[in-house]
Write a structure and sequence with these properties.
- The chain is an alpha/beta fold and 246 residues long.
- It has two domains: 35-105, membrane protein fhac (Ubiquitin-like (UB roll)); 108-235, Rossmann fold (3-Layer(aba) Sandwich).
- Helix content is 36%, strand content 24%.
- The chain contains six helices and twelve strands.
- It has helices spanning 5-32, 53-63, 73-81, 143-158, 192-202, 230-242, and strands at 41-45, 86-94, 98-105, 108-112, 116-119, 124-125, 135-137, 164-169, 175-179, 184-188, 216-218, 226-228.
- It has a nine-stranded mixed β-sheet. Strands 1-3-2 form a three-stranded mixed β-sheet, with helices on one face.
- A hairpin with a 7-residue loop joins β11 (216-218) and β12.
- α4 (143-158) runs parallel beside α5 (192-202).
- The longest helix has 28 residues, at 5-32.
- It is elongated, with a radius of gyration of 32 Å.
- The N and C termini lie far apart (122 Å).
- The relative contact order is 0.07.
């Protein structure tokens, strides 16, 4: 190698080039830290109902310590995503000194048993909420399916003035819907849309004429349904309580 001047010159030039790049990189790093590149504004966008100003200011103070150039956008996004009500975050630099943060909140659709909430996308999330919501009950991973069925139940039952307040699916895929009026509808595992439609079509001309409170309707029959009327059960039991023996 030492007797090949051309090769030695090429190697020397390469070393000079690497050294120059290292110097430029160090200079760029130092320049990026100059006050001229300070992050001067964080602009928050999105329709926010649950994320508070204090929460945002806390993240800006604790997490956004770097300047406009050195700020890690992925880390900033993760910091905002940790807020309980935040579903999605988009973070972008806006030259010369502004960070734009667009926040998408969860929109609550229901409660997931007593443990969490379900948003309008059928996703389960953890957050505090004291408003009135229907309750979804089911095995893990069933929230999205229940959310889809709930919308169908709400539309169908709304035509007869009923509102679903609880939707439950068992691990064997059997469905039950509890109404605001106190009635529970057992829909079973098959043809649940058709069974509900049959109930909606027949309710006013059948059950609506009874003038009795109905707490359970079994719709798992091919051509009809069975009902449970608490008052009738109470009336049948009453004579027994008044009978004496011995």
């Amino acid at each position: 190698m030492w007797d090949k001047p051309a090769l030695m010159n090429a190697a020397a030039n390469a070393l000079y080039a690497v050294a120059a790049l290292l110097v430029l990189a160090a200079a760029a790093t130092q320049a990026a830290r100059l006050p001229v590149f300070a992050l001067r504004e964080v602009r928050i966008g999105g329709e926010l109902k649950h994320v508070t100003r204090d929460q945002i200011e806390d993240i800006v103070r604790r997490e956004l310590r770097d300047n406009f150039i050195t700020l890690n956008l992925a880390s900033a996004r993760t910091a905002f995503e940790r807020l309980p009500w935040v579903r999605n975050v988009d973070v972008r630099r806006h030259w010369p000194a502004r960070l734009d943060v667009a926040l998408e909140e969860h929109v609550p659709l229901a409660r997931w048993a007593n443990d969490a909430l379900v948003n309008t996308h059928g996703e389960v999330f953890q957050a505090a909420y004291d408003g009135e919501l229907p309750v979804f009950i089911g095995p893990a991973g069933a929230a999205r399916e229940i959310a889809i069925q709930y919308r169908y139940f709400r539309r169908g039952l709304g035509t007869i003035g009923e509102t679903p307040v609880q939707v439950q699916v068992t691990p064997r895929r059997a469905w039950q819907v509890k109404l605001e009026s106190g009635t529970t509808l057992a829909l079973g595992r098959e043809n649940i849309e058709a069974r509900l439609a049959r109930f909606v079509a027949a309710r006013d001309r059948t059950l609506g004429r009874l003038g009795r409170r109905i707490d359970y309707v079994d719709l798992r029959y091919a051509n009809g349904f069975a009902v449970r009327i608490p008052e009738l059960r109470h009336e049948k039991a009453e004579p027994k309580r008044g009978r004496r023996t011995g």
